[in-house]
Amino acid sequence: xxxxxxxxxxxxxxxxxxxxxxxxxxxxxxxxxxxxxxxxxxxxxxxxxxxxxxxxxxxxxxxxxxxxxxxxxxxxxxxxxxxxxxxxxxxxxxxxxxxxxxxxxxxxxxxxxxxxxxxxxxxxxxxxxxxxxxxxxxxxxxxxxxxxxxxxxxxxxxxxxxxxxxxxxxxxxxxxxxxxxxxxxxxxxxxxxxxxxxxxxxxxxxxxxxxxxxxxxxxxxxxxxxxxxxxxxxxxxxxxxxxxxxxxxx
Length: 250
Hints:
Blueprint: E1 12-16, H1 20-26, H2 33-39, H3 42-52, E2 56-63, H4 71-95, E3 97-102, H5 110-123, E4 129-137, H6 139-155, H7 166-172, E5 183-186, E6 205-208, H8 218-229, H9 239-249
Parallel strand pairs: 1-2, 1-5, 2-4, 3-4, 5-6
């Protein structure tokens, strides 16, 4: 199998799946049909990422701010999320992909929380790739929640306050056991992160496209990967330092 190292592909890809409602308006569909169409786009994207050796794919399904949408749309999204999880469990087992969820579960129904936990437990031992679905998630919530957990550890004398640094924080935040996000993709033409993986994507390459999510294809994902592979990632170093390190590793 091709790996992310073989072709300089991202190890961790994150996608803001935007544009479902605009797609429905464009196609003159009924309310909610854009979300239904968007749900079907994920499967080929997941399969392609697994095929080329991406280690982790994280998708933004429902944000903390999405609770402010009309109740009809919120209810529909919750129903589609349940359908997606039911559909994904056998697919995850077929391709040996671990399925996870991140976000504030306290606002979700008990039925959805139980289904999420069931899916995580059934796929926990798979190691071909990790698919994470962000539900009721916000990057600022994630950072604050991690800070609260660490503060409690200090209070309980499990760690000393002087031990707190970026490495400790990175290990305890959501997805801390996965590689940092290398490539963050946003569809539908907006040029912002919208409170998604603010810590984990600190050094991510960004790819913005006008393509609406229901029209996003594997072909465009390949193009985004090609763009990524052509970018120089310096992480604060100079080009000369990067080139020297490359030569030394040959």
